[in-house]
Amino acid sequence: MDYASSLLSFLPGGRRSPGITQLLSKLESYLPEDQIERVQLAYELAEQSHKGQKRLTGEPYISHPVAVAAILADLHLDAQTICAALLHDVIEDTPTAKEEIVAQFGREVAELVDGVSKLDQVQFKSRKEAQAESFRKMILAMTQDIRIIMVKLADRTHNMRTLGSMPPIKRRRIALETLEIYAPIANRLGIHSIKTELENLGFQSLYPQRHKVLDRELKRAHGNQKEFLPKITGRLNDALKKASIKGLVESREKHLYGVYQKMRKKHVPLAQIIDVYGVRVIVDSVDACYRALGLVHSTYKPMPGRFKDYIAIPRINGYQSLHTTLFGPNGIPLEVQIRTTAMHQLAENGIAAHWQYKTGEDTETSQPDHARDWLKKLVQMQEGGNSEEFIESVKIDLFPDKVYVFTPKGNILRLPRGATCVDFAYAVHTDVGRRCVAAKVDRRLTPLRTILRNGQTVEIITAKNATPNPAWSSFVVTAKARAAIRTHLKGMQHGEAIELGERLINQALAEFKLTIKRLGPTTLLAAARHLGCKTTEELFEKVALGERLAPLVARHLLPIDTEAHGNESVADGVAVTGPTGTLSIAGTEGLMVTYAQCCYAIPGDDIIAFLSIGRGVVIHRSKCGNVRHWHKHPEKWLPVAWEGGIERTFASEIKIEVSNQPGVLAAIASGIAATGTNISRADVAEHDGESATITVELQVRHRVHLATVLKAIRHMPEALSLTRLIA
């Protein structure tokens, strides 16, 4: 009787789950006996906890955690992870508490189990939000211990194997989630074996007909290539022996989903996919890799432009290998991968290979560093956003069609395709991104929104007092850059809200000839707490965001013997004293003062402001049609006026009726440019064959500047009529 069988013979009542014998046999190959005994105890607890439960397939539920543990045993994960795999559903699906797992197996195993468990006690607005929050918890937990995601990936793999018992709608939803999230995570962690299986199973469940047709056509179209593979591997093996290079040559077939993705990406039929079959050469050193490359090139002619050196420049997940494509027998293209044994272990098992080299006997793998760097980025992504924003950021980060660019010192940075100079700056360091003002690409100054290409050298120019530009969020593509910019903008909005709220309260207090400074911090804090705010800053922010009315706050601040006076209006049954002071608008207030795009107010216009919940102060022209409904809410009106000497430009929109003739748009644009005015947008709508309407958004400084532009256009023969737009 072997060791696994002897352990099972002591189970109470002779209980035995299908697969447990095979699991223990796998563990015997790499774990000591005392650790296997701990795994056996975990199995007993799981079996007792899930007793009587069935899966949709009709099998006892315990078969699932055993299968999950077996997948991880194939990757040689440690005993704690195997125990967590066996127990990963007991907290969620059984009465077993986390404390019981801590008592029997220690805090480490309990935290692994808890990290994998879904959120089941939090109330969410929607199923989508619940899934996003559950995923967020899993991702952030795995930043503390990456083994959590290993258990989750194995759990998803076995669930995908048995997905056929699910209803079709649920089957497709789970398959899509697998292809969008879990397979890319396995790829990012370099676990090729799990990634490939998840992709193929997901493809089969999401697109069963496409899978069936492609599988059939693949076998039919490329069946003859299989005949050549033994011949090719034989020739390459002989060549390695003659050159005294120790190595192994094996053939491989690209998995079905990979072929499907390549067909979609390149928009080509199956017949044009040239590297469905390939050969892998595994040698014992990096030097032997390059020697073997020369050898295969001398045996079969290489295809120009198809060589990639992932040893010198590893992929983003740490993958290393030499790739080349050869003209095989009868001209059939053949992809060849050349790598060392350690590289092969990393290519197949990724981060899991780390546990196979934990003793320090082989330090060639740098995969854990790649994984940990990525996990640090995930922590930065989740700051300042909700769960659904976070999951979308992770999705973007999981599909990095890579661009390799260089720093001025020659270091290589890997960025998603479409990345800009700002993405590069944040990839170097968050502080570099925050303070960047310009960029040089290959020593030439270039705009920050420039999209980078492979091989370019990028230098970022920074300034000490520079801050992120809100416009950057419209073109950055990396999750790290977007998260950092979003966090900065929220902080900036918070600061501006506090300043604006203080100004609005002072404005309301002005009619009582009081100021916040005269009232003192003690009075202000007492009023803030009475209104449900913990700090005065929180009160200021709520006033700025329209959640509290400045006149009402001012009344709370008044001394008891002060008599209310001034114009009063009624809001929600409460008499509200309207402010008599005027808020000055300088055009530099930032995010908390916005200009309505229905009427495009500019300096010189008569303006009015409305306090909008969540947006702060919104400026309209007094003649704007959209302000009519505000008469029902006079407590939210704010008297405002322009400051003198404003230098910045403002958007203004005009509509020009023109004769429909060739070159009319260019003529109008030229006439506007002659006044020194920038056009930010232009739209043309044709009415008939003789006339058209051009709507132009201009950047002007004030009404006098706009009048100059209008005068120039009226003198143009192409212009039939001209109006300034207002709601």
Provide an overview of this structure:
- The structure is a single chain.
- With 727 residues, this protein is an alpha+beta fold.
- The protein folds into 5 domains: 3-209, Hypothetical protein af1432 (Orthogonal Bundle), CATH 1.10.3210.10; 215-353, Beta Polymerase, domain 2 (2-Layer Sandwich); 369-480, Beta-grasp domain (Ubiquitin-like (UB roll)); 487-642, no CATH class; 650-724, ACT domain (Alpha-Beta Plaits).
- Helices cover 47% and strands 17% of the residues.
- It is built from 29 helices and 22 strands.
- The strands form 7 sheets. It has a 5-stranded mixed beta sheet.
- Helix 7 runs antiparallel to helix 8 and helix 8 (107-116) crosses helix 10 (147-161).
- The longest helix has 31 residues, at 479-509.
- The radius of gyration is 34 Å and the shape is globular.
- Mean pLDDT is 80; it is low at 9-14, 119-124, 357-367 and 562-580.
Relevant terms:
727 residues; alpha+beta; Hypothetical protein af1432; Beta Polymerase, domain 2; Ubiquitin-like (UB roll); 5 domains; five-stranded mixed sheet
Could you tell me the radius of gyration in angstroms?
34 Å
In total, the number of domains comes to: 5
At CATH level 2, the architecture of the largest domain is Orthogonal Bundle
Mean pLDDT: 80
In what range is the share of β-strand residues? 15-25%
